[in-house]
Every structure is written in structure tokens, then in C-alpha cells.
Specification:
Helix Hairpins, elongated, two-stranded antiparallel sheet, mainly alpha, about 110 residues, 2 strands
Length: about 110
């Protein structure tokens, strides 16, 4: 699923006027009478990020989608250490989800 920024083809640091210009350009290329569904996506994206307050709300309350199949595959892969030591456990606690990818960092077993 595309983010509002991707739909309008603007950066997350775009100003209100840049976002409005991108919106107007998209509406010009995709008017509501041509394809109402595409227009609705564009309009919804604009409403979501049209000003500073709405962008802050989007940033605070929007959670990225995670690919749980990829998470499970990585969790059960044979490349991870079979013994869980304190360092490995600490790295798991600091793991993060970024761009639908589960990032654990350099997880190597440091016990000999």
C-alpha cells in the first residue's frame, strides 16, 4: 500500500505549497470524471498530509505494515545462532521494523 507521500510524489519534508501543487497536478492528470477511484486515492492522500497538523497526525498514528511471513521466515532461518546468549537477546530486544523488513543487525553468536 502506498503512502500519501508516494501517491502525491512528494518528500516527507515538502512544504504545504509543494504538496498542494503536487495534488493539483495529479488531479489535472486524473480528474474525477475519468477514474473516480484514482481521484479518491489522490484526494485522500492530500487530505492526510495537506498541512503541518495533518502530517503530524499521520506521522504519530500511522504504523508501517509488516510482512509477517518474512518475519517468521527470518526468525526460523538456520543462519541464526542455536544458543541464545545475553548479547543476542539484547539485540533481539532492540530489533525494529523498517520498510517491511525485520532488522536485527549483526546477529552472530559471540560465544565460543
Amino acid at each position: 500500500m502506498k503512502t500519501p507521500y508516494e501517491i502525491l510524489e512528494v518528500t516527507e519534508h515538502a512544504s504545504d505549497s509543494e504538496i498542494k501543487q503536487a495534488y493539483l497536478q495529479k488531479v489535472k492528470l486524473n480528474p474525477p470524471d475519468r477514474d473516480h477511484e484514482i481521484f479518491q486515492h489522490i484526494h485522500s492522500a492530500y487530505e492526510t498530509i495537506k498541512n503541518v497538523t495533518s502530517r503530524e497526525n499521520y506521522a504519530l498514528f500511522n504504523y508501517p505494515e509488516a510482512d509477517f511471513d518474512a518475519l517468521l521466515e527470518q526468525a526460523f532461518s538456520t543462519t541464526q545462532p542455536s544458543i541464545m546468549n545475553a548479547d543476542y537477546f539484547d539485540k533481539l530486544l532492540h530489533a525494529s521494523i523498517d520498510d517491511k523488513t525485520f532488522l536485527i543487525g549483526n546477529l552472530t553468536n559471540t560465544t565460543a
